Structure formats: C-alpha cells, structure tokens
UniProtKB/TrEMBL annotation:
<keyword id="KW-0175">Coiled coil</keyword>
<feature type="domain" description="SAM-dependent MTase RsmB/NOP-type">
    <location>
        <begin position="215"/>
        <end position="529"/>
    </location>
</feature>
<feature type="region of interest" description="Disordered">
    <location>
        <begin position="604"/>
        <end position="632"/>
    </location>
</feature>
<keyword id="KW-0489">Methyltransferase</keyword>
<dbReference type="InterPro" id="IPR049560">
    <property type="entry name" value="MeTrfase_RsmB-F_NOP2_cat"/>
</dbReference>
<feature type="compositionally biased region" description="Basic residues">
    <location>
        <begin position="560"/>
        <end position="570"/>
    </location>
</feature>
<dbReference type="Pfam" id="PF01189">
    <property type="entry name" value="Methyltr_RsmB-F"/>
</dbReference>
<dbReference type="InterPro" id="IPR029063">
    <property type="entry name" value="SAM-dependent_MTases_sf"/>
</dbReference>
<dbReference type="GO" id="GO:0008168">
    <property type="term" value="F:methyltransferase activity"/>
</dbReference>
<dbReference type="GO" id="GO:0003723">
    <property type="term" value="F:RNA binding"/>
</dbReference>
<feature type="compositionally biased region" description="Polar residues">
    <location>
        <begin position="614"/>
        <end position="625"/>
    </location>
</feature>
<dbReference type="InterPro" id="IPR042620">
    <property type="entry name" value="NSUN7"/>
</dbReference>
<feature type="coiled-coil region">
    <location>
        <begin position="168"/>
        <end position="195"/>
    </location>
</feature>
<comment type="similarity">
    <text>Belongs to the class I-like SAM-binding methyltransferase superfamily. RsmB/NOP family.</text>
</comment>
<feature type="active site" description="Nucleophile">
    <location>
        <position position="460"/>
    </location>
</feature>
<feature type="region of interest" description="Disordered">
    <location>
        <begin position="1"/>
        <end position="35"/>
    </location>
</feature>
<dbReference type="GO" id="GO:0032259">
    <property type="term" value="P:methylation"/>
</dbReference>
Amino acid sequence: MIEDPDPGPDSGPEGRMLSSPDELEFSPNSSQHELSELSALELSEEVGPKDKSLLCLPEKSGYRDTVYVKAAHIFQGIRLDKAPDKVVLRYGEEPPIDLPDFEDETNLRLSYELAFSALKYQDILENILIDSCFYPNVSIPDALTSLVVVMLYDFQDRKFQSRLITDVEQSISEVQEVENLLNSFKTKLAAALARCRIKHDALSIYHILPETVRKQEQRASTLPLYAWVNTCKISPEGICDDLKKEGYTKVKSALDFDCKSFCMDQHCSDVIIFPSHLKSELLNIELCTGYKLLFQDKSRSLAVHSVKTLLNMDDDILLVNMGSWYTVAHMSTLTNQNTSKIYVCGVKAQTKESELQDLFSNMGCRNIEVLNENFTDIEAKDQRLQKVKVILLLPRCSGLGVSNPIEFILNENEDADLLKDHSQGAIAKDKLHVLAEQQYEQLKHAMQFSKAQAIVYCTCSVYPEENEVVVKKALELGVEGNKVQPYRLSPPVLPLCSAKEIHSSIDKFFKVEPSEITNGCFLAVLTRERDPSETVSVKDVLARAAAKGLLDGIELAKTSKREKKKKKSKTSLVKPSTNEGMSTQIKIAEFLSREMKPHAKISSETLTAKVPASQKSTAPSSSPPQKKLVKMPPNALVPSLMKNLPSTSKGFERQMITVRPRPEDKMVALKPVEIVLPPVMVTYSGAQANKSQIPAPQFYYRWIGGI
C-alpha cells in the first residue's frame, strides 16, 4: 500500500516544488476522496492488455549495476530535449560514469529495454522527481541525472520494493548512491506517482502513453519469431525433422501456435515461424548454435527472396546498407556460390572484415566480397562490379513499421536514435524529410550502374514519403544517356497471401502492414525496360534454358570456332517431318543449323542417318538390307566444304533465300536403296545446274522428276 507523503519540512515549499506548474499543481493535503482513489488504484495497478500477459512472470527484482550504467548511457544519447522555458531537470553533457564493457547479449538487451522504457515515460518520471521534492532537495551532479531517471523507472516498476543483490555482482558506487537516495524518498515518490495517475484518470502510467505507442507494445508482446534456414548446411525438411525430434509440433499457421510449435512461412519457403516465448530455449539448441537456423526479421527475408527471382545463374549482386550480416549470408545461400558473387560495401575496419570472413566461413558462405567504400563513393563504372545485375538497397529509414524496435536495433545494427521516434509513435517532419532525401540519393546512385538490370528497394517504414514517393521520384528522373534503357516499376515477385497484399499490388508495390504476426515492410522492384532494337540469339536463349535444365533430353549442337568467323547469310530451311512428337527437337535443330550453316549433303551410297519410324515406312519393299551406319560429326565436313565453294557462293546463298520450292518437286531415290531423310534439308532451285560444282561425297542428291 502506498503511504501518504510526510508533510514534514523536507517536502519543501509548494512554490519551489512546482517548477512545471501546468502539470503539477497539487494541494499539499490530499482529500479523503483522493486517498481512497489512491488505494483503489494501487490494488488495480498494472491492469491492461500489456500487463495481463505478465501475470505469470515472476516478480521483478531489479538489474545488475552494469545494466543500469549502460542504460543510463543509452538514455543520455536518446533523451528528448526540451525548450529552455520547459526544462524540468538538467542533464549533464558528459557521460554519467565510465561505460562497462560486456558482450553479453542478454544484459545488452536489458539495458536497451530499460533505457527505452525510461524514454517513453520521460515526462512522467521527471515530474515525479519534482513533485516528490527529490529535486532540488537532493544535491547530485547533473551527469548522474540520466542514471536517476532510469533507476526510478525500475524502482516504480518493482512497486518501490528493494532490489535483490547477489554476492557475485559487480558493485558500482554511483549506482549504490542513487539507489540509497531513491529508497529514502520511496514514500514521496509513490505518492507523486499516484497523484499523476489520478490527474490523468489512468489505472497505470501505461495508459498515459499515446495510443499509437500502446498498440505498438501490444503487437510486440505477441510478435512471433522468424528464422531462416541455412541451406548450405541443412534443408528446410531436415530442420523440420530435427525440430520434431526435439518435441516441437508443426502447425499450419501462426494462429495455431501452442506451447512448443512452429510453422512454415507463406512468402519464403526457407523461413520458419516460432512463438515468441521459445526464443531463449531455441537459442541453446544445436540448430542455432551450429548456424543452421538464424533468427532475423521477416522483412529482410522478403528482400533477399525478391532478389533471387531476378537472378540468372552467373549474376553478381551488390548489397547496400545491409544492416545485419545475416542478410548477406541469407542472400549467399540463395545463389550459386560457384558462379555468383555478393558485394557488400561500407566495411571500413580491417579487423571487422576478418571477423566477417570467419563468420561467413562458419556459415558455409564462400561467395561474399567486402568493399571498404561507402556506396555513394563507388563509381558506376567500377571494374569490380561489371557483372552486378541486381542491387539490393536497404536504406536507413524511420523504422516505424517495426513493433519491437529493440530487437530490430540489436539484430540489424541500427542506431539507438531509432528509439526516439518509437517512444512518441511518430517522426518529426524535418527528420522525415532528411531521411527521404538520403533514400532518394542512394536510389538515384543505384540507377547509374549501367550494367545492373534490376534494383530491389526495401524499407520498414509506414510513411509514403520514404516509400512510394521516393521510388516514383527516382523513376521520373530516369537515367541520362541514350545507351542505357530506363527503369520501370515491376509487379511484386512474391506470393500474395492476403487481401491487403493483393490490393497494394495494384500499384506494383509489395506492402505488409504491421500486425500481431509480422512487422511492416515495403518492397519495390525496378527493372530496366527491354531495348526494342536488341535481338536475342535463339542459340543464347536455348543455351540458357539448357543450363537451367529446361531442355532435358534434347542435345544441342556446338558451333566450331571456324564457323563463328564466317559471316554468311543464313538460308531458309524446310523441315520434312510427319512425326509431331519430334517437332520440338526439329525446331531447335533448325535454329541451331543457322549457326552451323549445314550446306553439306552426304552421299546416300556411303552414308545413312537415323530417321523416325514413320519415315522408314515409306521406303520401297524391294530395298536391299540397310547399309552399315557411318556416324560423322556435323561440323567435320564444314571446312572442306567452304574451300570447295565457288566464288559466287554469296550470290547463290541470296538466291536460295528468295526461291521457294515448287509444289511438284518430289524426293526420289537415286538407286533402289533405303531413303534417308535428315532432320534438316537445304532446298535448291536446280540440282542439275549445281551438281558439278558441289562435291558428291558431301551432299545428299536431290533429283527433280523420276528416273
């Protein structure tokens, strides 16, 4: 029960107590009605959506001294500055005390959480310190004001109960001094807090926060965990099997979660979703310690999967402002590590580069190259980046689409200044304008890379000024020069799994709104328009299709180096085939034969070739037994043919292109032997006129009329 403040002399005169009279005009003698309300509020404290989820948690016992000091340092850098006429407390310019060095991620997270909580309630905490007469009665250096504020928040969060201190804990004298002062003012601090709640008609100080901040906290309390599978070490199916062996149950979606369960993500095939309360347990299993399962915000997985859909086998990628190194590793697992490279810019420290290489090596990623320059300092014609076809741009943004900013800061190496905007639920217009200009400059610079064919632009912002406006502004600018095709906005390349996603795709953007199951995300894919004058070689298309395994079972002939040097006109081909099952292979052979220039005919007396069964049935019944097949490579006859061609071959080729075969032309056998029809034949206007010019052993004979 909160005790009534002692109206003794240490309370100080009321006029001195009220440095902020617009907020803190209270009578020194509380009425009986207020005292009864105070008791009721104490009994009903911490009621609300946020606090109901904490009923099953053990009572808080405070933090280590090092956590308080680290939290004070963070708060000192992100606290809200006020106008000179509204200043309540004075904060020193120097850090409170020497910052302790610890790499423990758990304590670092606790420090950020404590600093962020103090930031959200900064006004309330400052007013409580004034209303309780803690200031100015207590003489304490201004440099320790940040430490006082963060420790006061924890003190009231523990219902003003004493902190439990272990013997092994490192003691810091400044922390002990502030704690003793707060304990000596416990009654007055509790009463000032109660009066503040009565004034705002709030059951707890949580209900004094802006509605946008409260909704954000509610989403953060239910937000599940997202982890991607390192396919360099294990497959998604293997991960699922191992999780089932550990006692986890696979469910259909995040809405079906129970105590120990997981599900697959609908957008990214290698992403698994877990309930949030399982994180500490999952981090200790071998799947996570062995870099097989890595936790990261889903927005980054959406970005790298968007890049994957735009890649060919040997394309390089440039990552800009990647934040977490896990983003780089995830991109590496989705590419062909033997033919593609991933360039990461902005790594300046040599020691950091060696640490990263060790990390990537442990994760099985072998195709990552680190660049020391900042992205905007790299020239578009840099020789190292001439094979870069896709640029992934993750610019620094307001991040207000993220429900849990602390996890985002720690995982994505973001600036703690992000907490300022989240504590208010909005961002200042001037700061938003600065961010939008930086994003525009980076996107404009990315569009200058003439070899790049696509740009993926991704933010975690909910503001159109950072999303659609930036993209449309850059597209309107275009790219200078006539040799480079302009960019255009392409439709989303990810599955659309909800009505909102389908609606947002109308404008060719991919947007995910913040919710209880995911953070907000914005994606735009920019691709270059195809040059209408650019002709793509059929052989190149077929070769690329064959490399991707799309032409299984179909053999493609190779063109000799000698033939590539010859620049002859390509003759039209006639395809005599009655078998529809061979149509695809014959068409491919027609295209490839243009490169090979198959002008040679093989004598039917010495050579035969295999033909479809339907064509063999047309041979005369009196034909002698089939002669022994002689296989010769198609290119073996080309050199000798080119030597024996007459000087008028160019004119003859042009003539062959324009002359069409007469309908009465028929194929007949020179001798009573089996008729052999190759897959591709060359038509001639008159075989008698040209027979003497073409060596017989290298051509099939074509006769007009009967014998």
